[in-house]
Design brief:
31% of the residues lie in helices and 18% in strands. By secondary structure, it is an alpha/beta fold. The protein has one domain: TIM Barrel. Helix 5 runs parallel beside helix 6 and helix 6 packs across helix 8. Bound molecules: D-xylitol-5-phosphate and zinc ion (ZN). D-xylitol-5-phosphate binds next to strand 2, strand 8 and helix 7.
C-alpha cells in the first residue's frame, strides 16, 4: 500500500449480497472500487452482528485491492491477530471500544497491518491527538455505527477539517464512513478526506448479474468528490 491523498472509493460489503460476497467483491472491483470495506459488528459495541475473522479469511482471495477491516467490536485486542491472519491490510478500531486505544494501535501495527482509529459522531477530534503518530488512517463516522443506509450527520464535517489540520504532513488517511453519496462526498472531500466508504450508495440498483450500476454509482461519487 503506497500513500497518497487521491480520492479512494471503498464500497462496504455490508450492502452486498451476504450469500455471495466473493462474486460481489469481484464485481465491484471490476467496476472501479479502490478498496473493499469490511464491517465487523459484534452485537455488543454496536447493536448489530455481521461476521468475524473466518469470513474475512474466506473473502480475502477475492480482494485484489485493499482489505479495509472496520472493527465495531469490544474488546478489540483479543481478536487483532485473527483479523491480521485473515489478511486485513488495514485494521480499524474505535477509540470508544476500550480504555487502551494506544496499546490496541501498537498491537495492530505489530502484526504488519496498517492501523486505523475510528471516531463515533459524539467523539471530538481531540481524541485522536495523543495517537497521531501511531495511526495510518482515521475513520470519521458520519453516522452512528451499526447499520447501513442511515442519514449523514452534517455536524461531523467540521471534525474532518480539524483532523486534517492536526494530521499535517503525516501520512494518515482520513476515511469517511456513513451516508456517503454524491451529495455528501464533496463536503468531506473539501474538508480533507481521501477514503470514502459507501455502502448503499455504491451497491444500489446493481447485482452480480447486473454490475454496471455499481460502476455508475462509484463514478458518480468520485466525480462529485472532485
Ligand atoms: C456503519 C458501517 C458503514 C456502513 C455504511 O456502521 O460502518 O461502513 O456500511 O453504509 P452506508 O454507506 O449505507 O451509510
Ligand atoms: Zn464501516
Amino acid at each position: 500500500m503506497t500513500f497518497d491523498r487521491s480520492v479512494k472509493i471503498a464500497p462496504s460489503i455490508l450492502a452486498a449480497d451476504f450469500a455471495n460476497f466473493g462474486a460481489e467483491i469481484e464485481a465491484v472491483e471490476a467496476q472501479g472500487a479502490d478498496w473493499i470495506h469490511v464491517d465487523v459488528m459484534d452485537g455488543h459495541f454496536v447493536p448489530n452482528i455481521t461476521f468475524g475473522p473466518a469470513m474475512c479469511a474466506a473473502i480475502r482471495p477475492h480482494i485484489k485491492t485493499v482489505m479495509d477491516v472496520h472493527l465495531m467490536i469490544a474488546p478489540v485486542d483479543p481478536y487483532i491477530e485473527a483479523f491480521a491472519d485473515a489478511g486485513a491490510d488495514v485494521i480499524t478500531a474505535h477509540v470508544e471500544a476500550g480504555p487502551h486505544i494506544h496499546r490496541t494501535l501498537q498491537a495492530i501495527r505489530a502484526t504488519g497491518a496498517k492501523a486505523g482509529l475510528a471516531l463515533n459522531p459524539g467523539t471530538p477530534a481531540e481524541a485522536a491527538a495523543p495517537v497521531l503518530d501511531l495511526v495510518d488512517l482515521i475513520c470519521v463516522m458520519t453516522v452512528n455505527p451499526g447499520f447501513g443506509g442511515q442519514k449523514f450527520i452534517h455536524s461531523c464535517v467540521q471534525k474532518v477539517t480539524e483532523l486534517r489540520e492536526m494530521i499535517g504532513d503525516r501520512e494518515v488517511h482520513i476515511e469517511i464512513d456513513g451516508g456517503v453519496d454524491p451529495t455528501t462526498a464533496p463536503l468531506v472531500r473539501a474538508a480533507g478526506a481521501d477514503v470514502l466508504v459507501a455502502g448503499s450508495a455504491a451497491f444500489k440498483g446493481g447485482s452480480v448479474s447486473n454490475p454496471a450500476p455499481y460502476g455508475e454509482n462509484i463514478k458518480a461519487i468520485r466525480a462529485a468528490a472532485g
